[in-house]
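1st attempt posting a full record on here, be nice pls
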Amino acid sequence: MFVIIFIIISILGIADAGYLVSRHYQKKQLFCPFNHDCTKVTESKWANVLGVRNDTLGLLFYSLALVGILSSIFSQSIADIFYGYISIVSGGAFF
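the predicted structure (as tokens):
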């Protein structure tokens, strides 16, 4: 059950981050509910880490998470390594 939830969350994360990345590079307005200006957040000086945009980092993270969880289904040794790395990366992203 954990694996299915993880796959679903990874796919939703890829869709969300992919939307943000595509809108940024196409220079199109984001859909933002309640008539707010989301570009204040996505284009602010805090919208990147070490010169890499947060939405791009999110897309990379969720893509690697999906590849990792799918790979771990077929190999227990990959699963052990993947769970260790995803714990470290997720903890770092949290802070």
